[in-house]
Amino acid sequence: MKVTLTVNGGEYVRDIEPRLLLIHLLRDELGLTGSHWGCDTSNCGACVVWLDETPVKSCTVLAVMADGRRVTTVEGLGSADRLDPVQRGFAECHGLQCGFCTPGMMLTARWLLDRNPDPSAAEVREAISGQICRCTGYENIVKAVLWAARNGGSG
Amino acid sequence: MGSEERRLRMTDEGPRREQRETKPYGPYGPIPRKEDARFVRGQGTFVDDIRLPGMLHGAILRSPLAHARIVSVDASAALAHPKVEAVLTGADLAERGLAWMPTLSGDVQAVLATDKVRFQGQEIAFVVAQDRYAARDALELIAVEYEPLPPVIDALTALDEDAPLVRDDLAGRTGNHIFDWTAGDKSAADAVFSAADVTVGCEMVYPRSHPAPLETCGIVAAFDAVTGRLTLWSTSQAPHAHRTLYSLITGLPEHKIRIVSPDLGGGFGNKVPVYPGYLCAIAASTVTGRPVKWVEDRSENLMSTTFARDYHMRGEIAATADGRILGLRAKVLADHGAFNATAQPTKFPAGFFHIFTGSYDLQAAFCEVTGVYTNKAPGGVAYSCSFRITEAVYLVERLVDMLAARLGIDPAELRMRNLLRPEQFPYTCPTGWQYDSGDYPRALTLALDIAGYGELRREQAERRGRGEYMGIGISFFTEGVGAGPREHMDILGLGMADGAELRVHPTGKVVLGVSVQTQGQGHETTFAQIVAHELGLTPDDVEVVHGDTDRTPFGLGTYGSRSTPVSGAAAVMAARKVRDRARLVAAVMLELSPDDLEWLDGQWRVRGDPERGAGIAEIAMAAHSSLELPEGVEGHLDASVVYNPPNLTFPFGAYICVTDVDPATGVVKVRRFIAVDDCGVRINPMIVEGQVHRGLADGIGMALMQAIAFDENGNCLGGSFMDYLLPTALECPSPELGATVTPSPHHPIGAKGIGESATVGSPPAVVNSVIDALAPFGVEHADMPLTPANVWRAIQGRPVRPDLALS
Amino acid sequence: MQVPAQVEYEKAASVEHAVTLLARYGTAARVLAGGHSLIPMMKLRLAQPEVLIDINGITDLCYVNLTGTQLRIGTLTRHAQLLDSQVAGEHFAILHDAERVIADPIVRNWGTVGGSLCQADPSEDLSAAFAAMKGTMVIHGPDGSREVSAREFHTGPYETVVGPSELLIEISLPIRPGGGSGYQKVSRRAGDWPVGAAGAAVWLTGDVIEDAGIGLTAVGATHFAAAEAEEYLRGKTASEDTLARAGQIAAENCRPVADQRGPADYKRHLARELTTRALRLAVARARGQAA
Predict the structure, then answer these.
(1) Which of B224, B319, C119, C174 fits as disulfide partner to C37, beta carbons 3.0 to 4.6 Å?
(2) What DSSP string describes C136-205?
(3) Is residue A99 assigned to a domain?
(4) What is the CATH number of the domain that holds C147?
(5) How high is the mean pLDDT of chain B?
(6) Tally of domains within chain A
(7) Residue B24 above 50 pLDDT?
(8) Are both A69 and A97 inside the same structural domain?
C-alpha cells in the first residue's frame, strides 16, 4: 500500500507492505542508515527517531502508522553546515565510543532539551533510561547533554 | 597553548581544527576524537548499512531443541517461495566439505547441523531470499523432523556416569570431559593449607553472561567468480585472523580474500570468533553468484554466539590468625557448551585464570580447571574477560572479603597488609606470571581517600542501628593484558605479535596501518596521538587505517586489551624507525653528521644550535627529492614493524562500591562507585576514563541483573533483552575516578592497556558491597546476579542457583 | 531483528468505522493502537493477526477529562499523556506512580492506556491500578456501548471481555472524598516488568477506612485485585497493624508462578510487603501527609 511521509523535511511516497517496520523503511527504502536497530523486543532504543514531535522506537512502529506524519532522524539533526548543540556536546564530552546508540541518544536529548532546557543530571538519566549503551557507561552521555544545555541548548 | 588545551572546535561552520603557526608535537592528552565527526552525523558505516547491487538476504533456521537427532530436513516448500533464491542445509554443506569448521580451541563446530543438534539455537539451514522479510517468512517453510534426546544442562552433572553424550561426532568419545589443566604447586599449596591457622572456602558461580554489543554480528559476502575474489564486510575484531581461517576452511587462496571490518557497534569479544552464519553467507554467495548479507537477530546473538564466563568455582584461602594471607587454591568446572570454541592462546585452555593469585604476596597457590561439554551454545572467553581474568579476580576478591569477615578484620586493612609492595616488582607469582610494575598500596590508599572510607564505615554503623543496610565493597585487581609474546601465545597457531606500517607522504602527512580493529575504543585518535608524539606532528597529520586486510599489516586483532600494549607498541617502534631514518636524511640536508643532531621538541636539531634543524615534513620532502640519500635510506621514510611483546603488561586498580539494600524487597541500589586505575602511561585520559565508565556499568550489570540461565530441557532463558537485562543510565551512578601511573618497564612508552580493567575489577566490588550490607543477616555469600529475588532468598538462607531456572 | 508475518491493514476513521471493520473481520483482526504490546508479539510471531485495524486516527479517543465526579480516560491516551495529566495526578496519585514505572519514557510516548489494558498481560501495571481504583471500562460494539467493572475486565492471561467486534473506548474512575492512593513496584531493573507490584486506594473518615481498593499484578491475583484484603480493611482503623494484616491476607489469596523474575515464595512475599507499603502511602496521602 502507498504511504506518504515527510522525513527530515523531504516528502517521500512509497509502496510498501503493511508489515514493514518504520526502521526498515528509513534504512532500507530511504537509505537513511543513521538510525540503527539492536534488539527484537523494543528494549534497546538504537532505533529511536522522532514521529511528529516525539521520540519513538521505530522498530515498534509500522511504517504505515507514519503515513501523513513527519519523521526526524539523526540525518535531520542540525544541518549541512551547522551541527546541533547536542551533536557538538557528544563530540566535546566523549559521549560516544562505537557510535551505534548515539543517533537515538541524541534525538532523545534534543527532545528533552526542547521541553526542559535546563535539566538536572537525574532528569537526563531518566530521559535516556529506555536506551542502552554498551560502551560509555552513560556518564559522558549525561555530560554531553548537560553541555548542550549550557551551550546553545535550543540549537 | 599546551597539548591539553587543543580542542576540536565544533563551530557554526562545522568542525574546524585549530590551525597553528608552529605545531607543538602531537600530545598525549584528552583531545576529542577524530572518529566522532561521522558518528554524530549518523554517517558511520556498519555492516547492516552496506548495500550492494543484487544483494540477497540470508536467514538462519535454528533448532528449538537443546539435544536431538535430526531425522530429516525438507526445504522444498521454502525453495518454492517466489522470493527465495537458495536454501543451504547441512547436507549441502557436507558435499562441499563445509558442514564442520575448526574452532579457535582446536575443536570442530557444526556450521549447519547434519547428525544432531547440540544446543537450542543451533544452526540448521540457511535461506537466501530477495529481502529480509521474505527470508524470515521462508524459515517457516522448512520442515525439520527431530528425535529429542535428553540434554546435559547442569554442568555439575556433565561428568556423571550416565550423562548423555554431547559429542558423539568425535571418534572415540565416551564422555563430556574436554580438558584438565593445572597451574601452581599442589604440594606446596597443600602444605600451606594444612599448616594455616585459618582457611575459608566457598563455592561460587560466575554465571553465564553475554557481551551483547549493541550491534549484532553480521556479514556481507561477495564472491566474484570471474576474479575468484571473495570480499567480506564483517563484524570482526580480528580481520586478518579471520582471513587466514576462511582460507583454510574454504580452500580459497588467502590473497584472494579481502575482509573489511567497517565501523563496529561494539565488540567486547563477541566479534572475535568465526560464526556459522558467516560461512553460510560465503557459501551462499558462491552458490548464487550474488552478494549475500546475513545479520543476526538479537535472539540469535544471545542464544548462539560466544557467551562469557560460566565458571563453577570452589575457592579456598589460607591465612594466619592475624591476617597474613598464605595461599590460595581453586578448583573450577568450566562449562564450554556444545563445542569447545573458547578464544584464548592455545597453551592456556583456561586462559589466564591462574592469575587468581591476585595482588597479594602469597607463599603458594594451586588451581585446577576441568572443561566440560553441555548442550548449550559454545564460547566462554568473551566480554572483556581478559582471558578468564574476570573469573580469577572475582574468586580471589570474594575470598579475601570472606577471610576478612571470618577474622573480624576490616577488608581494606586486610588488603593493605597483604598487597604486594613496589619494591617486590617485577614480581613472579606462585603460578608463574611476572607482574611488570605496580605501586598497589598507593592505589588503594587513593581509592579509600576518594571514597571517604572511614566516614562510610561510620555511616554504615549508624544506619544499621536504624535498620538500614548499606554495604561497602572493595575490589583490588591485577590483570595481565597485551598477549604476546608469540613463543608462548598463539591462537590456532598464529603467534600473537602485531604489525604496524607507517607511510610518510612527501608533505609529511602520515598513514599508520595497524592490525587491530576498534569497536569504539578510539584507535583512530589514540594511535594518531602515539605517532604524532613520536614524530613531532599533530594527530590530524596522522591517518589511522584499520580493519581492511588489503590495507593493513597482519596481526591477531583487538581483544584482551591488547591494542595499546601490542599494536600501540608496534606503532611506536615503527615511528621510531621513521624518526631514525629521518635523522640520517636530516644530517645530509644540514651537511652534518647524524651524531650532531638530537631530537628535541619534535624536530631533529643541531646540538648546541637548536634554532637549526628540520621537522619530519621537511625531511620527508627531502627524502622524496633529488637529494643524495645516505646509506640506509631509500627514497622515503616509510617503516614497518612486527612487535613481539616480551611479556604481558599488568594494569591494576582499586575499586570501591557503595550500595543500599532494602532487605524487605531485596532491591539493591548502587550509590557510589569509586575507581582508581593504573594503566601505566595514559595516551588519552578522556578515552581511558570512558573505558573505565563502561566497565563499571558492566560490573553493575553482571552483579545485579545479567545472566543467561537454562531450564532442565535446555531452553535458553536469556534469549532477549527482556530477560537478559542490561543496566540503563538509572542503575549507574556517576563514577568517581582516580589514577596512578606506574609505567610498564618493557613497553616502549610505558603504557599498559585499559579496555577490560573495569569489567574485571568491578563485579567483585559490587558483590562484596551487597554481601557486606547483608552481613547482619548472616549472609556469607550469594551468587551473581543479585536480583531482588536472589537477595531476598539469600537473606532467608535459601540462595538460588543463577544458572538454572528459578523455582 | 525479527519481523512480523504478512498482514493486511485497515485504517479506522471513527469508532463506528472501527466497529464495522471489526465486525467484518472478526477474530482475524486485531486493533492497532500504540502497537507497543501488539507489534513486539507480531515480530516474534506469537501473534499473527490477518488484519490490523489502526485506530490511531481516531484522535477523539485521546483525552483525560474531569467530568463531574469522574475522571475519564480515552483508550487512545498515550501513557506519557496520562503521566503528564495534572488532573489525573491530582486525584489519582496511583496513576502517576504507576506510569512512572511503566516501560520507559520513549515507549510511553506511543503506547496507549487502552492498548496495555487490552493486551492483558498478567504483569501489566495499569490493570492493577484500575482494579484498585475500581474503575469502569466502557466498551463499544455494534449494539452500542456497555460498561464493565475494571475488576471483571480480564478473564485470563491475555484475555478480556472485549468481544471480537468490540472496542474499548474509555476507562472512568470515580472521584470520592477522603481518598488517597499509591503504587509500589519491584522490578529487576528500571523499565522491566514487575516481579510484583501493588496499588492501593483508601477512603478515610477520620482514622477509619471506609473503603479500600487493592490491586496486584504479576502475582496471580484474581482479576488483579485483593478482594479479601479489601474486605478485611473496611471499617478498620488505619494503623500499622491493620495495614500489615491486609498485606498478609492479600498474599495468602494470590497464586504467583515462578519465572525468571522470581520464585513463587518471593512473589508471595512481595504481594504482602508491597500491599502494606502501597496502603501506607495511600493512607498518608489521604491524610495529606505525603505528596
Answers:
(1) C119
(2) EEEEEETTEEEEEETTTSEEETTEES--TT-EEEEEEEE--TTEEEEEEEEESSTTSPEEEEEEEEEEEE
(3) yes
(4) 3.30.465.10
(5) 93
(6) 2
(7) no
(8) no
Is residue A155 in a domain?
no
How far apart CA C236 and CA C239 sit, in angstroms, is 8
Please enumerate residues of C whose Cβ is less than 8 A from a Cβ of B. Answer: 1-3, 5-6, 45, 104, 186-193, 195, 258-264, 266, 269-270, 273-274
Residue B532 to residues B168, B502, B544: CA-CA distances in angstroms? 56, 12, 11
- Interior angle at CA B801, CA B798 and CA B805, nearest 5: 110
Other beta carbons within 10 Å of C263: 23
Q: Residue B524: pLDDT band by 50, 70, 90 thresholds?
A: confident
| CA distances in angstroms from C142 to B313, C15, C21, C48, C49, listed in the order given | 65, 10, 10, 25, 21
Dist CA A137 CA B695 (whole Å): 7
Cβ B705–C189 below 8 Å, yes or no?
yes
Q: Does A16 touch chain C (CB under 8 A)?
A: no
Residue C229 has pLDDT above 60, yes or no: yes
Are residues B10 and A125, on separate chains, in Cβ contact within 8 Å?
A: no
- C-beta atoms of A100 and B266 within 8 A: yes
Q: Which candidate, B476, B482, B408, B411, places its Cα nearest to that of B446?
A: B476
Q: Residue A24 domain-assigned?
A: yes
Nearest to B353 by CA among B317, B329, B375, B372: B329
What span, in angstroms and rounded, lies between the C-alpha atoms of B330 and B348?
A: 16
Residue ranges making up the domain that contains A45: 2-76
Angle between helices B757-773 and B685-704 (to 10 degrees): 40
Q: What is the pLDDT of residues B145-202, one digit of tens each?
A: 999 999 999 999 999 999 999 999 999 999 999 999 999 999 999 999 999 999 999 9
Counted across chains A and C, CB pairs separated by less than 8 A come out at 88
Q: Residue A56 sits in a domain of what CATH number?
A: 3.10.20.30
pLDDT at A153: 60
pTM of the model: 0.95
Range B29-55 average pLDDT: 94
* Per-residue pLDDT tens over the stretch B619-628: 999 999 988 9
pLDDT at B518: 79
Domain CATH for A99: 1.10.150.120
Q: What is the DSSP code string of B1-30?
A: --GGG--EEEETTEEEEPP-SS-PPPPSS-
- The cell for B807 is 523455582
Domain count, chain C: 3
- Beta-carbon separation of A42 and C32 below 8 A: no
pLDDT in tens, B684-695: 899 999 999 999
Amino acid at B640: S
Residues C111-119 have a mean pLDDT of 97
Question: Cα dist. C68→A35, B107, C62, C130, C168 in Å?
Answer: 46, 74, 19, 19, 22
User: Same domain for A63 and A111?
Assistant: no
Tell me the residue range of the domain where C27 lies.
8-54
Residue C5 has pLDDT above 60, yes or no: yes
Strands, DSSP E only, in B324-426?
A: 325-335, 364-372, 379-380
What type of residue sits at position B532? Answer: A
pLDDT level of residue B28 (50, 70, 90 thresholds): confident
Report the DSSP beta bridge partners of residue B205. Answer: B312
Q: Quick check: C96 pLDDT over 60?
A: yes
What gap in Å lies between CA B208 and CA B308, rounded to an integer?
6
Q: Which chains have at least 3 CB atom pairs separated by less than 8 Å from chain A?
A: B, C
Instruction: Check if the beta carbon of residue B78 is closer than 8 Å to that of residue B141.
Output: yes
Q: Given a cut of 90, is residue B42 above it in pLDDT?
A: yes
Say if the ipTM goes beyond 0.85.
yes
Helix axes A139-150, A102-115, angle to 10 degrees: 40
Mean pLDDT across the stretch B426-430? Answer: 96
